[in-house]
Amino acid sequence: MFEPLIPPDQIRLLERYEMSCWRTWFMAPGPAMIDHLGLRFENLYGAQLAISSKLDHLLFNRVLGLGNEEPVSPAIVDRIIQTYITSGVPRFFMLVSPVAEPKKLTGWLKDRGFEMIEPWAKLRRGLGPPREIEMPPRIVQITPSNAEMAGVWGRIVQTAFEYPPETAEWFAGLVDIGRWRAYLAYEGDKPVGAAALFVNGEWASF
Q: What is the pLDDT of residue 39?
């Protein structure tokens, strides 16, 4: 477990914002796509379970906020594991923040076969001006209901991260979801980059 560099209350707040971000993301596709990908987002003992039973990918099968809102017990860990097993998910991971309670949680996970793979870095910044860069690309914000640009945006994200092809349509749906802002970067007339901003009150996730 890594020692936090910011106050615990802020870490808990950022964890809540990330859970809200993921919850709206899983709601982005329509009913047909949700069924096609086997998407579910469940609340369980203060944690949130992102489940995609038809996508064998850790990004889409993860536990968020474990131990953030209330202390965890071995029985809760077992209940979460069983939820994924009965969902037919072949693998998933649990994100454990530095303020997760109790501290014995990581030991319980190791006892159940979980392995630390790598730290999940989260960076924060204030509202000061960004650093000047040479020859910045042309940035365009995608307006809601612009299906063509949304499709381009979804394909760039899917291709850049080598996600399964069917996720491109899922990502494109974010453009029409409230609190999300989607952007394309152009080199000349060619879209070459994509980014998204999730706005939640006084905070935003980029």
A: 92
Name the residue type at position 42: E
pLDDT tens-digit readout, 104-135: 999 999 999 999 887 777 777 777 887 887 76
What are the helix (H) ranges across the chain?
8-26, 31-37, 74-86, 105-111, 147-160, 167-172
52's enclosing H/E stretch is strand 47-52
On the CB side of 48, CA atoms within 13 Å amount to 17
| DSSP class of 124 | -
- Within 13 Å and on the Cβ side, how many CA atoms surround 179? 18
The tokens for 183 are 């952007």
Cβ partners under 8 Å of residue 176, min gap 6:
28, 144, 145, 150
How far is the first Cα of the chain from the last one, in angstroms, to the nearest whole number?
25
Instruction: Evaluate whether 205 touches 13 at the Cβ level (below 8 Å).
Output: no
Local structure of 97: helix, strand or coil: coil
The pLDDT, as a whole number, for residue 176 is 81
Rounded mean pLDDT, 72-85:
95
Cβ-based neighbours of 17, under 8 Å, separated by 6 or more: 200, 203, 205
What are the C-alpha distances in Å from 153 to residues 69, 159, 174?
A: 34, 10, 10
